[in-house]
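Module 6 notes. Inverse folding takes a fixed backbone as the condition and produces residue identities as the prediction. Think of it as a translation problem where the source language is geometry and the target language is the twenty amino acids. Below is one complete input and output pair. Work through it position by position during the lab.
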């Protein structure tokens, strides 16, 4: 938080706006990779319904996300 405050105070709010756009585009890219690339692999290679597959792995994804350390 202190670094973001220093950046906003020194470089202005535009720097934080650019950082927010970068974060948004990163999440958008991750979503597109999951939807298009992984979805295509699940449908074409594994021959499984995409929605059922993602519903089945929700619990495993939640556990892996919540226990990941930085």
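Target side of the pair, the amino acids:
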């Amino acid at each position: 938080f202190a670094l973001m405050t220093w950046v906003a105070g020194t470089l202005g709010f535009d720097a934080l706006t650019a950082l927010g756009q970068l974060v948004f585009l990163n999440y958008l890219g991750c979503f597109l990779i999951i939807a298009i690339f992984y979805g295509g692999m699940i449908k074409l290679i594994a021959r499984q319904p995409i929605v059922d597959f993602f519903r089945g792995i929700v619990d495993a994804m939640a556990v892996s996300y919540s226990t990941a350390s930085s």
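Reference fact for the lab report: The chain has a mean pLDDT of 89.
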